[in-house]
Amino acid sequence: MFNLRYPGGIWLILAGHILSQFTLALATDPQRCVIKRTEDPEVDDSTAILHTVKKCSRNSIIEFTPGNYSLFTPVSFLGLDNVTFLLNGNIILPSNITRVQVEINSTLNQPATYAIPWIYIQGTNVQVIGSESFEFGRFYSFGQQWWDLGIRTLRPHLATFNVTNGVLKNLKIIKPIAWGWSIPGQNIHISNHFVDAKPDNATRDDTISFPFNTDGFNLSGKNITVDGYYGHNGDDCVSVINGARDIVAKNGYCGFSSHGLSIGSLGRDGAVHTVENVLFKKWTMDGAVYGARFKSWTGGRGYGMNIAWEDITLVNVSTGVFITQNYYDQDKGPKPPNPSNSSTKIINIAFRNFKGGLGTSWTDGSCISDPCWNYVPGLDEPKAVILDLYPDTATNITLKEINIQPFNNPGGTPNVICDPAALSEAEESTLGFKCANGPFIPA
């Protein structure tokens, strides 16, 4: 265990994320299994892949050799024990949209966050290691055509990694249809991850070819480290969701139009959701809607506790720091009532050493409703900080070393949205800035 102390008395207690913890206990002489593939790109290799994985599900090294493997059918790899996948080739999903939708509509795969995964991996001591070559270790999903047509139904989650003691390394995700990797497992180390969800024919403000829901990771497990991420996303680069505990995500770059380094969403439909002990450190957010985000739904319950963002560089972002405890589907009507007067609680949350500049737009191409999904009252331009709090449910929020500037104005002062009436008692004295709509004034 190690402790990280933050301004305002916050202690983050995180499990030791040491690579040696993830050294897998392979047998002294593991069997080596090579997956055969056809040379015909129209032929499905799924059966051959499943056959080999089933035969080599214990104490094995399973190799995809250089070249392309057609994975035209969703697959589940269950009950793995001490298995290393060497992805020295590439995985190719169907390019035909209808074929993917039919498979997703009928698949028996295990469920993942938000969607059915095309690949489901479950077991103990499992590694998926991509090639050192940038040419291989890739997953091709042909998302561009989905984005061009604006199709947002029957989309797969690329993969779920439901493993105890696992490693993901050197994987390259090329044009995902939507969500990337879901990680509900525990004791996981992820490194050198690459995501290209940037449209070839659009900008971040384009509503036609916007890559909706192209999250990099949805983390719901325990004791997970992401160390080394480079991605162009149309949604969260890293989303930490219900059930997550002891998470470190560090050393990353988020480009195109990321929706940030996010907690949540939490508490939808009044659910009791919890997240605790999370650290985001050393990230560059380039063109993002949010740098750091905490999002919970109106009427939610549970809590987010001991969470910190540290050493974040902002380049042309819409909002540097964003917290809402009042989220709802704006495209489905007015804000719903909250008869229970409940909210997902915030306990010990810190933002430290944010530097950089705002962009020119407060939203992006994902804004297809009126009002926009990310609108809050008073949002008419990029903001340094937005605190959209539910009264008396957030304690020990601190912002320190915040140096965010307006677009093309290095010496200027950005604006914030903050209602002092929503702060808990004595919270303003430790907040780190003056809570009022208007200029950001450090306290």
TrEMBL record:
- Class of enzymatic activity (EC top level): hydrolase
Q: Does the keyword Nucleotide-binding apply?
A: no
A single GO CC term for this protein reads: extracellular region
Enumerate the GO terms in the molecular function aspect: galacturan 1,4-alpha-galacturonidase activity; lyase activity; polygalacturonase activity
| Location within or outside the cell | Secreted
SUPFAM superfamilies according to UniProt: Pectin lyase-like (SSF51126)
Look up the record and give one Gene Ontology term from the biological process aspect.
cell wall organization
Q: Which keywords has UniProt assigned to this entry?
A: Cell wall biogenesis/degradation, Disulfide bond, Glycoprotein, Glycosidase, Hydrolase, Lyase, Repeat, Secreted, Signal
Indicate the secretion signal residues: 1-27
Coiled-coil features, chain-numbered ranges: none
Q: Does the keyword Nucleotide-binding apply?
A: no
- Which E.C. number(s) belong to this protein? 3.2.1.67
Homology family: Belongs to the glycosyl hydrolase 28 family.
Question: Protein name, please?
Answer: galacturonan 1,4-alpha-galacturonidase
Organism annotation: Coprinopsis marcescibilis
